[in-house]
Amino acid sequence: MSGTRTISTTTPAISAGGTVRVFHWLWLGGLLLGSILVGLTVGRYDLAKWQIVTILFDAVRGVAQDSIEALVVLNVRMPRILMAGATGAGLAICGVALQALFRNPLVSPKVLGLSSGAALGGTLAILLGFSGALLMGATFLSAFGALFLVVLISNIAGRSLMTIVLAGIVIDALFAAGVSLVQYAADPETSLPAIVFWLMGSFAAASWDKLAQVAPALAIGILLLNRLRFRIAVLAMGDDEAQSFGINVARSRMVIVMLISVVIGAGVTASGVVGWVGLVIPHIARMIVGENHARLYPTCLLLGASFMILTDTLARSLTSAEIPLGVLTALIGAPIFVYLLCTRRGRDSR
Q1: What string of H, E and C letters represents the secondary structure of 204-270?
Q2: Rounded CA gap, 127 and 130, in Å?
Q3: What does the buried/exposed string (b/e) look like for 272-297 if buried means 16 or more CB atoms within 10 Å of the residue's CB?
Q4: What is the pLDDT of residues 247-277, one digit of tens each?
Q5: CA distance 132 to 214
Q6: pLDDT for 327-348, tens place per residue?
Q7: Neighbouring residues of 80: CB distance < 8 A, sequence distance ≥ 6
Q8: Other CB atoms within 10 A of residue 150 CB
Q9: How far is Cα 83 from Cα 341, in angstroms, rounded to an integer?
């Protein structure tokens, strides 16, 4: 009788947990797919849904298409959507990795100065007339330099949460001053408008060629950070605890910092400076799945990609002139973050 009783109480629990996990990934996958369909449908050039489905179906079959509708879907909207999704996923996973690495939920690429660091490298590259791989290399080196300085300062001054945030604020201000200096030195007729437009954030210049330049760096960085999520979680427990697990703390931290810099550099190259994604999305993901790292990182990836695709769709369709992406992410991200802060006490007390 006892054996029968054990089976009858355990099996439904496992089934219920499996059902919940399946539902979790189904709605996140549906959200991403819905975001892509909205991005393909909405725009200044009206397209019927059946036209989009037909164009995509013919593209999958390898049928040559030269109509205006096909060019809009395949050469304008699709590369832009893919670039926005990859950038949003990258910024979100960098945010959750940084918050775990520095053991501070307020840390984000913007707070630690990575965005300003990448912006300085990018503006310098634009000022010198660089583009493509040289632009991405400059943003990566500058972002890595900013994060390296934050780590160095926090190690010297004491690795308290307050010290890390203050070091990030100082480095952010330092690199932001460098960006202002580059703008001051730029030619107001040629390079300055390009720099200002790039800094405000946009995927307007997205193309298959540009996607081919940044996608490998984004994909490799995202996959490796997701693969290292448990190592990051152990590092978040403290250096002594990480060493007791046989982890080389200094080398692991440097590898993770470099991966984050690669993703941020590629993301800033693709879109310019876009804030709030790396701060807000990890908090929303934690609210949904808690601190379960096996589910937290993939959830961040899907939420970040969906958020960026939908925000970019709003940016290019709300007004006749495209709204800068950085403005929209701030207008959307700030109220969401305030709501999360105000409701945190209630969630923590449950």
Answers
A1: CCCCHHHHHHHHHHHHHHHHHHHHCHHHHHHHCCCHHHHHHCCCCHHHHHHHHHHHHHHHHHHHHHH
A2: 8
A3: bbbbbbbbbbbbbbbeebeeebebbb
A4: 888 788 888 888 888 898 888 888 888 888 9
A5: 9
A6: 899 899 888 888 877 876 665 5
A7: 39, 203, 204, 206, 312
A8: 29
A9: 30
Q: Is 69 exposed, middle or buried (0-12, 13-18, 19+ CB in 10 A)?
A: middle
Tell me which residue of 87, 89, 138 sits closest to 117, measured CA to CA: 138
pTM for the model? 0.85
Could you tell me if 191 and 126 are in contact, meaning their C-beta atoms sit under 8 angstroms apart? yes
**What's the sign of the alpha-carbon dihedral 275, 278, 279, 285?**
positive
Identify which of 46, 31, 133, 96 has the alpha carbon closest to the alpha carbon of residue 233.
Answer: 96
Which residue has tokens 């105000």?
A: 342
How far from 208 is each of 130, 161, 196, 290, CA to CA, in Å?
Answer: 19, 41, 24, 37
Phi, psi of 129 (to 5 degrees): 85, 15
The tokens for 323 are 């709204």
How far apart are the C-alpha atoms of 90 and 87, rounded to whole Å? 5
Q: How far is Cα 127 from Cα 111, in angstroms, rounded to an integer?
A: 25
Joined tokens for residue 10: 């355990």
Q: Which of 276, 199, 260 lies closest to 225 in space, CA to CA?
A: 260
Closest listed residue to residue 300, CA positions, set 263, 269, 335, 268: 263
Tokens representing 318? 């709300």
